[in-house]
Amino acid sequence: MEALSRSVEEIFEDFQGRRAGIIKALTTDVEDFYSQCDPEKENLCLYGFPNEQWEVNLPVEEVPPELPEPVLGINFARDGMLEKDWLSLVAVHSDTWLLALAFYFGARFGFDKTDRKRLFGMINELPTIFEVVTGEAKKQVKEKSSVSNNSGSKSKSNSKAASETQGRQSKALQTKDEDEELEEQDNDEHGDTLCGACGENYGTDEFWICCDICEKWFHGKCVKITPARAELIKQYKCPSCSNKRAR
Fold first, then answer.
1. What is the distance, to the nearest Å, from the Cα of residue 123 to the centroid of all Cα atoms in its chain?
2. CA–CA separation, 30 and 79 (whole Å)
3. CA distance 153 to 24
4. pLDDT digits over 85-107, tens only?
5. I need a surface site. Which of 40, 137, 147, 241 has the fewest CB within 10 A?
6. Taking the CA atoms of the chain, what radius of gyration do you get in angstroms?
7. pTM for the model
C-alpha cells in the first residue's frame, strides 16, 4: 500500500518526470506519437509517467479512476487540423492534466496552504508544455534578455507604451460603430447559409466554422469543434476534406 505521506519535493519530482515524458512525445518522439493517434481507434489518451516515459492508450476502465485522467479522444481531431495546431491542443490539455494530478496528490497527502503555494511556485518556474511545443518558452527567454539589456531606456519605453495605449483606445472608440454595422451585415449575409453537415440554417446564437478547403460552413457541434479549439486552428478542414486527403 502506498505511503500516506509525501513531501512537496516528491510531488514536484513526479510532476517533472511526467512533464518530461509528454514533452518527449510532442517533440523528439512526435512521429511515433502521431502514428499512434489513429482517428479510427477509440478514445485515446496521452499519459506521462514519473520515469519520463509516455504512452498513448485507452482510458482506465475503473470509475471513478484512482488518479485524474488525461483528456479523452486526442486522436479524433488529428486529421482535421494542421499538425502543429493539433500538437498545441494536446499540449495545453496535458498542462491541465499535470496540474490536476499535482494538486490531487497535494490534497491526498494533506498539504496545507503553505505547501500548496510552494508546490505551485515550483511548478510555475517551469515553462508549460504548451510554451515548449509552440516555441513560446524560447521567445520568453529572448524577451527577458532584451528587457535586461534595455533597462536604461525603461522610462522612455513606458512613455511610448502609454502613448500607444491611448492611441489604441481612441481608435477603438472610433471603430465601435463600424464593428456593430459589420456584425449586422455579417448576420444578414449568413442568414440563408446551411450547415454542410446537418443542413440546418445559420443561427446567430450558435458557433459556426468554415472549411478553408471547400468553404462550406458547419455548426461547431456538428463537427465537434468548440470556440476554444477553433482559436488554435490556423486552417480548418472539414471531415469530408480530411478524408479526401487521407485517400
1. 18
2. 15
3. 40
4. 999 999 999 999 999 999 999 99
5. 40
6. 23
7. 0.58
